């Protein structure tokens, strides 16, 4: 069992930056992949990116590539999503998730989820 708690969301102007955090507890954190998803109002939840347990590999959705960066600190059981050059279309609730496959875009492949944190980007 893994418990995940996101934080760091808020309101930011277009072009600004935010860093989201995902705190994990429970099952040994250092051996699981972490993914970030987001869900905008009226839209399906979509994959933002993922990171392997050892931080060697990350993957990103095309819509955020070059603007968002995922990192993790296994000694602190933390994963971060650095979001730069934010756009109004990045407005969504952001979720972190834990699983075995860092690149999977399917929600069903991620076994544990946080409660989400709201990010709002104003134009």
Write the layout of secondary structure elements.
Elements: E1 2-7, E2 10-13, E3 18-26, E4 33-39, E5 46-51, E6 58-60, E7 68-73, E8 78-83, E9 92-99, E10 110-113, E11 117-122
Parallel strand pairs: 2-11
Antiparallel strand pairs: 1-3, 3-8, 4-5, 4-9, 5-6, 7-8, 9-10, 9-11
In short:
The chain has 123 residues and is mainly beta. It contains no helices and 11 strands.
| Structural Rg | 13 Å
Q: Which percent bin holds the helix content? A: under 10%
Apparent shape: globular
Number of contiguous helices: 0
Based on secondary structure, the structural category is mainly beta
**SSE string:** EEEEEEEEEEE
Count of DSSP strands: 11
C-alpha termini separation: 40 Å
- The parts where pLDDT drops under 50 for at least 5 residues are none
What percentage of amino acids are in beta strands?
over 45%
Q: How is the biggest beta sheet arranged?
A: 7 strands, mixed
Give the rounded overall mean pLDDT: 95
């Amino acid at each position: 069992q893994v418990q995940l708690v996101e934080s760091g969301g808020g309101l930011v102007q277009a072009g600004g930056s935010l860093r989201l955090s995902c705190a994990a507890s429970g099952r040994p954190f250092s051996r699981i992949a972490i993914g970030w998803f987001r869900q905008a109002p009226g839209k399906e939840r979509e994959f933002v990116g993922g990171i392997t347990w050892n931080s060697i590999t990350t993957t990103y959705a095309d819509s955020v590539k070059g603007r968002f960066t995922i990192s993790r600190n296994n000694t602190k059981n933390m994963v971060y999503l650095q979001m730069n050059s934010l756009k109004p279309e990045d407005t969504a609730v952001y979720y972190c998730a834990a699983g075995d496959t860092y690149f999977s875009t399917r929600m069903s492949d991620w076994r544990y989820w946080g409660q989400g944190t709201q990010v709002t980007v104003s134009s």
